Amino acid sequence: MTTDEFRRNRDNFCYRHPDRQSFVLCQRCLRTICAECQTQAAVGVVCPECMAEQRATRTPAQRTAERRWSRPAPMVAVASGRPVVTYAIIAVTGLTFLLTLIPGFGSLVRDYLSFFAPALYPQITGVFQPWRLLTVVLVHDGFWHVGLNMLALWFMGRSLEPLLGGARFLALYLLSALGGSVAVALLQPNIPVVGASGAIFGLFGALLIIGRHLGANIRMIAILIVINFALPFVLALVSAIGTGSFAGALQAIQISWQAHLGGLVAGALVGLIYARTRRRAQRGLQIGLLVGTTVVLLALLLLPPVIYG
Question: Do the Cβ atoms of 113 and 181 come closer than 8 Å?
C-alpha cells in the first residue's frame, strides 16, 4: 500500500477524529478510535458511543455494583519497598534465640520472656509481668522451632507487609501474638509457652481474609491452615495408640494449639478490619477498631482468675 492509499483508507484513522491516526479498534463496533476516545473495558477498549449504550442498558444491580467497586480503595500508605519490618522481626528473634544458647544466661532470658499466665495475676502469684504477653514470640525451644517459624514469617511477610505497610503489618503481628497469649491464658493457664506460632497463625488468618476480599485464590492458604492446626492433634492421636491417653499425648508433644487458635482468630479479625477500612478517609475508624480489639483481648484476661479460682 502506498502512502497515498494509506491516507485515503479511513480505517487507519479515528472515526470521531479523522485527522488522528490509530490502529486500535472498539471491541464492540470494531471502529478505529484514538487514545482520547478509548474507554477501558473488561476486555480491550470501547468507543464513547458503545460505552453510552452499555451504560443505558445496565440493570439496577449492575449500577450498584459499579458504584461500589469502581471507586478506588487502595490500602492507606501502602509500602513499596522491601519488607523491612519482617526482616527486623526475624533479626530480633534470631538474636534472642542466640542469647538463650549462652550457658547460665540463656535460661534467665528464656524464663524472663516466655509466657506464663500466672505471672499476670499479682493477687495469685505476687508478681505482675505483662510483657510476657508479647515477648513470648521471641523465645523458641530449639533450632527447628525458630527456623520453621521465621521461614513462615519470611514467606508471608514478603506478601503482607508491602500490601499493608510496615506499621499495619507490625500491629497485625503483635495483636496476633496477643491473641495467642490470651487463648493460652483462657485454655491452658498453668503451662509455660514459648514461640511465635500464635503470631504466625495470625498472619495466616489475615492473609486468608484479605486474599478473600481481594478476589485471590485462597484455597491453598486454607489448606495450609487446616494442616498446621490439625498437626498436633494428629500427632497426639498417633501417640495415644501406644499410651492410651489422648489428652496426655497432646500435652506431651508440646505444641500449643491454644496459641495457634487464639492467634488465628485475632489475625483474621485484624485482617477483616484492614479489608473493610481500606480508604484513606477510614484511617481513624481503622485505628479505633484496632484499639477496640486490643481492649477486648486484654479484657478477656480478667476471666482466668474467675474460671480457675
Answer: no
Cβ atoms of residues 275 and 213 within 8 Å: yes
Joined together, the cell numbers standing for residue 40 give: 477501558
**Domains of the chain, start order:** 3-67 (no CATH), 84-308 (1.20.1540.10)
Q: Taking the complete model, does pTM exceed 0.90, yes or no?
A: no
Is it the case that residue 247 has pLDDT exceeding 70?
Answer: no
* Measured distance CA(192)–CA(301) in Å, rounded: 16
pLDDT value at residue 64: 58
As a whole number of angstroms, the distance between CA 163 and CA 209 comes to: 13
Q: How confident is the model at residue 207 (pLDDT cuts 50, 70, 90)?
A: very high
For residues 239 and 32, the model is more confident at 32
Contact 173, 202 (CB under 8 A): yes
